[in-house]
């Protein structure tokens, strides 16, 4: 396919003008509609967000990089029984998980495991500041989605922020570009992703084309996860994505995942159910779904279909 015919995923700028940040203004409503349409048509978009200072963004990458230099036995201390929360090294992929990453105590606990009792106060301050900004961004996007569906002052569910930081190291050999992270849909509610200059993320369009993503120095990437798709009664699209490195350079990226808290259930609001949109999913406990997605039974099901297998009311899509 020639590059001219590759469709572009949406880019949404928050906020170009002050009026757009005023909830209820015409500009806010226009942006909210764009957020919702991007979520429905693509399940992802690039979001330009100047409120998160460029300096903090680069300080965070500088603070996260040294983690990968630590001895293997230290890295292994980032242990956590919850899926996606622990250190993992699988082929070219290496990643750490920091749970509740806007909370100083939680990040301090992580830093004391990595740097012993000295901890690393600079690291803790940078990471919590970063994740607080990302939580603000998530909250704006959540409010916009709610407003555009007419669900004023509702929330998806109570979430905490899991920060995962990742590197991918395989180099291409000849014309072969090995897949570094296999195609999947995200199991948390939603994801904000950021990369340190080296691109490699690809998203699957509804037409079945893999589209490369390349972020600017003040943009982030929003991805709809399976539970958010289920909450929206299938309106928002849980987009498949993968990582393929083509430039021969190591990639460093982080994701802030909004993870529903223990005991939270995913329930479609009745306003999103009508004759044209019959209910697709029963209400389900988030952790039960997460555990299912890690089970042997789920491993043989395509990632995007696991939520249908777990909570779908019809087998139509599954
Ligand atoms: O590193 C990336 O760009 C993608 C990471 C990702 O998709 C994930 O951790 O779920
Ligand atoms: Fe992902």
Question: How would you characterize the largest beta sheet?
Answer: 8 strands, mixed
- Number of beta strands: 14
Walk across the major sheet and give the strand order: 1-2-10-7-12-5-4-3
Q: What molecules are bound to this protein?
A: 2-oxoglutaric acid, fe (ii) ion
Shape: globular
Uncertain runs with pLDDT below 50, 5 residues or more? none
**Rg result:** 19 Å
Element string (H = helix, E = strand): EHEHHEEHHEEEEEEHEEEEHHH
Helix content: 25-40%
The number of helical runs is: 9
N-to-C CA distance? 30 Å
Structural class: alpha+beta
Q: Beta-strand percentage?
A: 15-25%
Mean pLDDT: 93
Q: Oligomerization state of this entry?
A: single chain
Keywords: Iron, Metal-binding, Oxidoreductase
GO molecular function: metal ion binding; oxidoreductase activity
Family: Belongs to the iron/ascorbate-dependent oxidoreductase family.
Domain Fe2OG dioxygenase: 159-260
Describe the overall structure:
With 318 residues, the chain is an alpha+beta fold. Helix content is 30%, strand content 23%. It has 9 helices and 14 strands. It has an 8-stranded mixed β-sheet. Strands 6-11-8-9 form a 4-stranded antiparallel β-sheet, with no helix packed on it. A hairpin with a 5-residue loop joins β8 and β9 (210-212). The mean pLDDT is 93. Bound molecules: 2-oxoglutaric acid (AKG) and fe (ii) ion. 2-oxoglutaric acid (AKG) binds at residues 164, 166, 181, 186, 193, 201, 241, 243, 253, 255.
């Amino acid at each position: 396919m020639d590059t001219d015919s590759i469709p572009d995923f949406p880019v949404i700028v928050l906020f170009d003008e002050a009026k757009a940040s005023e909830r209820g203004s015409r500009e806010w409503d226009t942006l909210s509609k764009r957020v919702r349409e991007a979520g429905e048509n693509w399940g992802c978009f690039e979001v330009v967000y100047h409120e998160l200072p460029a300096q903090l963004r680069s300080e965070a990458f500088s603070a996260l990089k040294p983690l990968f230099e630590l001895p293997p036995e230290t890295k292994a201390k980032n242990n956590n029984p919850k899926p996606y929360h622990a250190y993992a090294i699988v082929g070219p992929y290496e990643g750490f998980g920091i749970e509740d990453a806007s909370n100083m105590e939680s990040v301090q606990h992580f830093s004391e495991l990595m740097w012993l009792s000295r901890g690393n106060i600079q690291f803790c301050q940078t990471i919590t500041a970063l994740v607080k900004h990302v939580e603000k961004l998530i909250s704006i996007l959540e409010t916009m989605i709610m407003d555009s569906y007419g669900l004023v002052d509702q929330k998806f569910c109570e979430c905490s922020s899991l920060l995962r930081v990742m590197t991918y190291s395989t180099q291409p050999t000849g014309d072969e570009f090995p897949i570094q992270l296999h195609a999947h849909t995200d199991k948390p509610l939603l994801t904000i992703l950021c990369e340190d200059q080296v691109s490699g993320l690809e998203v699957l369009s509804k037409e079945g084309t893999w589209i490369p993503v390349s972020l600017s120095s003040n943009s982030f990437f929003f991805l709809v996860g399976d539970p958010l798709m289920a909450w929206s009664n299938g309106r928002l699209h849980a987009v498949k994505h993968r990582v393929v490195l083509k430039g021969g350079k190591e990639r460093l990226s982080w994701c802030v995942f909004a993870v529903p808290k223990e005991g939270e259930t995913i329930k479609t609001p009745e306003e999103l159910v009508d004759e044209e949109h019959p209910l697709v999913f029963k209400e389900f406990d988030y952790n039960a779904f997460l555990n299912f997605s890690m089970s042997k039974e789920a491993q043989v099901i395509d990632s995007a279909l696991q939520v249908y297998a777990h909570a779908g009311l019809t087998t139509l899509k599954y």
